[in-house]
Amino acid sequence: MTVQFPKSDNLAAIDMVNSKMKRFGDKYPNVTLKKNDWQYSPNEIGIKMAAHQAPSWFRTPATEGKTLLERKWLTDLTPFLAKYAHANDFNEKLTGPFKIDGKMYAVPANGYIMSVMVNKKLFEAKNVPLPTPDWTWDDFYAAAKATADPGKGIAGFAMMAKGNEGGWNWTNFLYAAGGTAQNVAGGKVTSAFNSDAGVKAMEFVKKLRWEGDALPQNWALNYGDVYNLFKQGRAAMVLGEKIEDSVNNGGMKKEDLMILPIPSMAKGGDHTGVLGGNYDVVNPQETPDVQQAAFDYMTFDLFNDSEVTELKRVLDERKTKGQVYLYGAPAYYKADSEHGKKIAALVDQYPDNVYRFDPQVAKLMKGVPEPSYNGQDTYAALTNVLQEVLTNKNADVKALLDAAAKKFDEEVLSKVTVQ
After folding, report:
1. Which of 46, 98, 268, 410 is the most exposed place for a label (fewest CB within 10 A)?
2. What is the count of structural domains for the chain?
3. Do 138 and 270 belong to one domain?
4. Which region is the signal sequence (predicted)?
């Protein structure tokens, strides 16, 4: 069985995978493990599958689910789950992207539901009340506008807008408005981001930029740029839950940070964000025996006391270094599962260096899977619209979205066949 192995420069991951391979080999001496350092790429998966060179299992972004299924590059895990003791313990909030027609095609590795991270110090500096978990777009706008201080280079809200991450960030507002990125009907996939919900979501970002003056003056930021800005104290709010990075690498204090759900468009509405992350899938080109071994490998440390032991090591190490551990975000396991209770009991022993999700926040968070077909291409198309809106104060949002949808359907989605 070929194991997806980290690249040579990822030393920490190499140590972890080598340890896992040894432990797996001790338990399953009948399985010969071979390393394959290919990492998933939408542009390379077709070549790998055609040449039968893809690993026996591989990790893929949530965006790739239905694209892989359409090309018959996913294995139905239902037969393996039928014999798996923890089949019903997976967190249903995270299994959505690869649960298709009642069948499960992947195991969540590090799934997430998008949230908002807040620098409380910037709110306090301008005497702005902290938002509450049940906040709305109006509350978000007011907070972003009030905390922004352009003269000092401080943004009320910093979002990604340079690469595909721009479309990824913006889609949270699309979902919160009740929209979707794609429609599937009659065996065809078409763009849906130019709906009324899409127009509302893009108009909201336009308002933040031009009326609220709440975004960074240099808004062309990528993933790393946004979080660096936040760590420098130059953004009051960003999307994501990079608490550990902000404290452990940015010198911030956990008491100064807060996580909230994506704001609802209107009072009482859903707090809906992008549900994404990475998932482990089994190569359907392998023999049934190798597929079983791949499933056993993917789930080897899941729901296992070895994970509890490893977490204790991490918590001890971070306590020594004065670093924090983020706990309470949606994980691959159900919080009320036996494993979830063991994790909770361990975390309770480290009150000083654990940042806890507010249970109310976790409860309010609702996730919608990333675009199922050509997800990264969808984000790229949306980023083009976003950049025009952030550049041109008089941009016609509806016209731009319609043009992007038409072009994307003709050039990309028209070539997709839904089984």
Report:
1. 268
2. 2
3. yes
4. none
* Residues 268 and 238 reside in one and the same domain: yes
d(CA 158, CA 215): 6
CA–CA separation, 419 vs 28, rounded Å? 37
Q: Is 4 left (phi over 0), alpha (psi -120 to 50) or beta?
A: beta
CB contact at 8 A, 35 and 5: yes
One domain, residues 248 and 284: no
| pLDDT greater than 90 at residue 93 | no
Kindly state whether residues 296 and 260 are assigned to the same domain: no
User: pLDDT tens digit string along 188-230?
Assistant: 999 999 999 999 999 999 999 999 999 999 999 999 999 999 9
**What are the CA-CA distances from residue 31 to residues 148, 224, 225, 276 (Å)?**
58, 40, 44, 32
For residue 111, give the nearest of 131, 124, 125, 94 by alpha carbon. Answer: 94
Residue 342 lies in a domain: no
DSSP-derived secondary structure for 4-21 = E---TT-HHHHHHHHHHH
User: 396 Cβ partners below 8 Å, 6+ apart?
Assistant: none
* Domain boundaries, position 89: 2-108+277-325
The alpha-helical segments, DSSP class H, found in 28-129 are 45-50, 65-70, 78-81, 92-95, 120-125
Instruction: Identify whether residues 168 and 256 lie together within a single domain.
Output: yes
Tell me, yes or no, whether 135 and 253 share the same domain: yes
Tell me how far apart the alpha carbons of residues 179 and 378 are, in angstroms, rounded to a whole number: 14
Residues 406, 201, 214, 119, CA torsion sign:
negative
- Upper half-sphere CA count for residue 291 (Cβ side, 13 Å): 19
What pLDDT is stored for residue 125 in this prediction?
Answer: 97
Quickly tell me which residue has 């539901």 as its tokens: 113
Q: Are residues 120 and 255 in the same domain?
A: yes
Which residue among 290, 325, 360 closes a domain?
325
Dig out the tokens for 50 from the structure: 């055609």
Whole-prediction pTM: 0.84
For residue 215, give the CATH number of its domain: 3.40.190.10
Cβ-based neighbour number of residue 266 at 10 Å: 13
**Where does 156-289 show beta strands of DSSP type E?**
182-185, 188-191, 237-239, 257-261, 271-276, 278-282
